[in-house]
Amino acid sequence: MIWGLLVDYASGNGDFEELVWACVHVNGHWIYGAERSLPNLEYREIREGLTLKDAAVKYQADFKWVLLWLVHRNREAGETALTFLWKHAKAIKTEPVLNDDLRYGKSLIDSGSAASPICEFILDGIDRHNKGEGDIPLAACKVCAKFMVVERPGRKMYCSKNCGVKDFYAKRGGAKMYMRDLGQNPMFKKKQKK
Ligand SMILES: [Zn+2]
What we know:
This protein is mainly alpha-helical. The chain has two domains: 2-149, no CATH class; 161-193, no CATH class. The chain has helices at 2-10, 16-27, 44-47, 52-72, 75-89, 116-130, 161-171, 174-184, 186-193; strands at 93-98, 104-110, 138-140, 147-149. It starts with a helix and ends with a helix. Mean pLDDT is 86; it is low at 32-38. Bound molecules: zinc ion. Residues 141, 143-144, 146, 158-160, 163 line the site of zinc ion (ZN).
């Protein structure tokens, strides 16, 4: 799932290349008429002599702003994120190819940057959200603030069992209670002896 790949990448332990190709696939652009505009079909970074790995490093901070906006919806993050998303999504240039009936496809004439397919996917997600056609399945853990994928917004609050337990104790007397219970836990005692 693309949102999961996005969270992993922005948190520093994901595969950028896999994310890019997953977005290309979902956005559904045809690479058509390539003989006419071959140089433009490579991502800008590749034309500039960089690799996708370089691009992954280059854009990581930008995508963190995007996640901050998507999850917390605050204006400051939104302004930075939207400028970035728009610039890269709109760098993709396509032309229409008529199929049959009213159906048409989009053939790619400029792929933009390596961030472009991801930005296009996210903007589409935002548009769907604004039209009431589906929410963005992202949230932040209530305890450690880590970004995570959720099936339905508002349902999942913790990234892990550990964070859920921490919050449980925070409500019932805080860290002291937590350490006391942990000390009485036979599993914990066993670990201490080693
Ligand atoms: Zn957490």
